[in-house]
Amino acid sequence: MSCSLLEFCRLQELKTVRDYLFQSQKNEPVEEKNQTENDVSWETAEWESAWDSGENKEEETTSATKVEEEPTEQRAPWLQDCVVSLSPCSDLLVVAREQKAVFLSAKWRTDDGGREEMTLAVSWTGTLSTDEGSSTGRPDWTCVVVGFNTGYVRFYTENGVLLLAQLLHEDPVLRLKCRTYEIPRHPGVTEQHEELSILYPASMVTIDGFSLFQSLRACKNQVARAAAAGSDVIQPPPLAYKKWGLQDMDAIVDHCSVDEERFYPRGVSCFSQGKPPAMSQYVTVGGGPYTGFYYAVEGSSQPLLSHVALAIHHLICLLLTFFVCFSLFPHSGWLGWNKHKNEEEAVQKQKPKVEPATPLTIRFGLPDSRRHGESICLSPCNTLAGVTDDFGRVTLLDLARGVAIRMWKGYRDAQLGWLQVPEERVDRELSPSASHPRRHALFLVIYAPRRGILEVWGMQHGPRVGAFTVGKHCRLLYAGYRLMGVNSVTSKGWQLHTQQVCLLDPITGALRTVNIPFHLALSDKKSERAKDMHLLKKLTTLLRSREVEPDPDEVDPALQQLCSSQLKLLQLYSDIQQLHSAAVTETCPENEESLEGIEEELSRIGPTLQRYAQLTTRPSVSFAQDSPNSLLPAQAFLSQMECTEGEELRVIRGSETQWNQLGNFMFWGCLCGKSPLHKMCDTLQQAGISPQQLLSLLLSVWLQREKEVLQKPEETVKNLHTLLIALSNMKGAVEDSWDPQSISPWWQQVRTTCIQSHNAAAALLAAFVAHRATKASITSRADSKFQSEWEAVSLELEQWLVCVRQLEDVLVLQTLLLVPPPQGATGGAAPQCSIKTLLEGGTGGIADSISKWVFRHNLAPERLKEILQKKEEADEKLEQKSGEGKEPEEGNQEDTDRTAELLVAVCQRFPHSLSPDLLSAHCCWEYVEGQYLWCAVEHLKLVSSPHIQLGISAMMWSTFIVKRFSAAAYLMEKDVGMGDKAVTSFLGCCVQLLQILMEADSAVEEVSAPELSMEEAWCGAEGPASLAEMALEQRGVHYPLVQHHCLVASLLHAAMTFSLKVKPLSLFDSKGKNAFFRDLTTIQLMPSGDMDPCLVSIRQEFLLRVLTAWVQAINDPSISASGNTSPSPPSNGPKADWWPSLCLELGSLLQVNPDILRRHLVCELYSQGLDPRAEEAREHVMLEVEDKDVLGSQLLVLTGQRLSYCLLHSQSQTQSAMELLARLPPTLCTWIKAMDPSELRCPLVPLSQTSRLVGRLVEILPENHAQYSLALHLLEAVEALSAEG
């Protein structure tokens, strides 16, 4: 039972209503209407165009008389220009426009079929009537509250008699909202007070419902007495109200008033009294903020409504229905109805005093500068509210928390309403919590006029439970309140029917309400039971409403056929159960010949099957109801079988689980050898099930229960062979006209199932069996035809040979992929592969699978290279085991060796797809996708083909590297998403990648491109191009541009390694900067000629700083030599020996004098006290120094600084040293005193090293050098000091 849209009333005299409201347009002269085609008589051409629905453009300019004769269906949109409101009891409808209003009252009439139906007919059109009536069981009278643009609020009866008028504020009235009494559904919930709230542009007035009820009752009595006396003078009492000035919102268009409660609102500190204050919550919508929450603290608590009810119990007979019409903006004082214009002016002159508003600041809101609210609709439980806005969104607010909890989009100009559905008594009696109060379900009704759809949504996060296609000009009428004057005493036993939400269709005049069953709000198993109870109740009602005279002799043929088919299915179910419980006495000697050689095949693949079984039988969690050994219920069996017209049975293919359960029920006992095979096949054949469906069920259970099959492979294989032969001998399995030289659909079905299966071992065993069964069938057919001893050759057997070969390859590959990764490696489930997935993966699918396995196992590139070398050795000598090699870091040695053997076996089965170059290329790509760039570069180095290496490097650079590399260059001192160590490693990998790219580009012309090929069994691969194919299709790079990027990468790497503050791009001119980060295949304008001396000076300074930092790093024990804290290898650390040579190479590219770099390096080594390293560098560097005089002078100064420290500044000065200083020549002594040893980084150096340095100085300096004699004096002084020391 679903929700429905029920019509309960229909409007009459719509034409009369329309003519009265639009009388001013109707009475205009015909001549003015006929002036032009588009100059219509009414206010706008769009209005009449919408009215006529565009069906006949010529009728737009016809006379008013003809317009009156148009059917109602063509004039429906006129209602959109009117204000429409319906009373909660649905007994009064008001339609108003500008200065006119029409009241339609409820009437009952009898239709042609004799049934009574409710209609709404015109009861008043603006002319006063003194007739007043009352009907028993209905509200005595209805009050209409009207807000005016002058600020007045007036109260009228249903006959247009003015009861009360009061000026509350001097701004136009925007909205009128009413709140009436609601019975508390739960203990502890406060009663809802009655209240009328009036919204103005910047303020709000609230009137207590109890005082308003008394005032209106008194006014009505005065009007009745005045009418009886023939007078129209009454003295209405003033209304007691509260006015709040709503602040901190730019614009307010709608509001809702939540009932008074005692609570601490958000942002309010605790009060001193023991209980929280009574506060009223007001929620407004508009702009700036989009939604505002106001809290008004009451001065004193309201009296309990139950106490008030006892005092006014005698007044409750006059029940009052509040009917609120939204704001009407008259221009000439309509609804004064008995007053002339001069009387209205007199009233205006006597305008009463307006009380000022009490300021009320906003507590909090939902700010959204671009969104403006249009309306808000409060739920009956006062906890939720729906808000519409100008973005076409409907937002659900939680008023207690002040947050938006749900939003719908695509509902522009939406109209909202709420439905509160109580739980039915039948459901409550069956509920275990029947003693608890009845539950209520809350639904939100959304009418989207632009889409012409009415939707019902469950709260708060429920689904859409109903949708109805309605017209685009309907009006959703939702009052949101009930009767006024009801309290806890008088509400008992009161069952007045009210409609919560009504939809008015102006085309048909129908008023419809939404009927929603309670069970649609349930989301658990109780929902099904509740739905069944609804259906049972509906069926019972339907049967009682009809008089049925059953004829026992008449039997429905369809029912008889259904019963017959069900009996047949139940008999088959019973026969299968009996066969499973019967003893097995069958023997099949005739099938043993076709199984010859199966034992050899099983023994050949036995080790692989054993390893595969070990890897697939890992502990896992399963549930008893999901066990394949559970008995199939008869109900499930019947739901999956059906009888066709030809008395045959057909299996209904449901879910995979249901299909496997049915296969287990039929064939698993036979495969285990516990049930008679031939009897089972005969029983199924006699039942009329097609052999194709039986074959599908057999293969599904065989593949599903792979673990049990591998426990006893010999026995299960024989049973599968017997079943397969029996099924193939059935009628309709293998066609009698089948030519062995063509493909058989029967065996193709088996082959397709094996190709698509991810259970490699079970699929291979099934292929073995099917291959031999096919071969036996073809041989028997050939013998019967030709009586020849020649072996039959057919296309079918060739297909099976290829399939078996592919399945063997898949089994070995799947076994390798099932090997779990070592602890701590990258996790993830093992991928499942099949022949189909590998073929669809293209020519590189196999290498891609292995590369993912290498990545999951974190297999080092050196280890992979070692295993591939073992594979080459195994190819040369297959019997030799490849167990030698380095001991792995993780896991057991034996398991690792077995894993390596598996990888070697896979590579042997795929010699072309898993060649070292292809596998290394795929591993490189897998690691770079996983953000392990260093490992990717190491794998890239293993690629021997420069063509593949060049393509992979270019693809890596353009896809993964260049954007991050440019970010590191531009934002060296800012965050680029990585830490300093990660940036250093990344830049080092960039340098290596660009160096590989340059080397590969240089070697491409010397080596021919490799030819890619596939294994013969896998030549049918179709899919995306392999990585190697894409690499070979890459365009060649521009070598100078690559070198330019390698240069800046080296500078960045050096700056990050030694923590040098530098702006790397400032080391290049404008041409060099423009060439950066361009496509490496394009030709760019590169720097040429001599550089600016200032730029060269900056470059030289940077390289000198790099050399200085390297010398400091090699002598700093705090810096690890291997760089263990960095993901980079040891050779890339700050102590790497290649930094000096790199600086010299960079200097030649940056036009820096290399002689300056060499001299600086030697001097820095001696200054650091690293004389042995300096002597090693001296043998290589000094031989290349061009200006040795300058180097000698620099070393002479360094030697003088050492002697100055030893003789003058050392704390361990001796008397012999002072005597030696006195004996030195005055010139030498003065020179030594002028030296500053603080410039030395390590001044305390053994005298033996200084003596060797001075001796080397004498050799370097020529005899005619100005400081040669000074060097000789230094040599004598050092030797003397060494002798005395």
From TrEMBL:
<dbReference type="InterPro" id="IPR026059">
    <property type="entry name" value="Rab3GAP2"/>
</dbReference>
<keyword id="KW-0343">GTPase activation</keyword>
<feature type="compositionally biased region" description="Basic and acidic residues">
    <location>
        <begin position="54"/>
        <end position="73"/>
    </location>
</feature>
<keyword id="KW-0963">Cytoplasm</keyword>
<comment type="similarity">
    <text>Belongs to the Rab3-GAP regulatory subunit family.</text>
</comment>
<dbReference type="InterPro" id="IPR032839">
    <property type="entry name" value="RAB3GAP_N"/>
</dbReference>
<dbReference type="GO" id="GO:0005096">
    <property type="term" value="F:GTPase activator activity"/>
</dbReference>
<dbReference type="GO" id="GO:0005737">
    <property type="term" value="C:cytoplasm"/>
</dbReference>
<feature type="domain" description="Rab3GAP regulatory subunit C-terminal">
    <location>
        <begin position="693"/>
        <end position="1262"/>
    </location>
</feature>
<feature type="region of interest" description="Disordered">
    <location>
        <begin position="25"/>
        <end position="73"/>
    </location>
</feature>
<dbReference type="Pfam" id="PF14655">
    <property type="entry name" value="RAB3GAP2_N"/>
</dbReference>
<dbReference type="Pfam" id="PF14656">
    <property type="entry name" value="RAB3GAP2_C"/>
</dbReference>
<protein>
    <recommendedName>
        <fullName>Rab3 GTPase-activating protein non-catalytic subunit</fullName>
    </recommendedName>
</protein>
<feature type="domain" description="Rab3-GAP regulatory subunit N-terminal">
    <location>
        <begin position="78"/>
        <end position="477"/>
    </location>
</feature>
<dbReference type="InterPro" id="IPR029257">
    <property type="entry name" value="RAB3GAP2_C"/>
</dbReference>
<feature type="region of interest" description="Disordered">
    <location>
        <begin position="874"/>
        <end position="896"/>
    </location>
</feature>
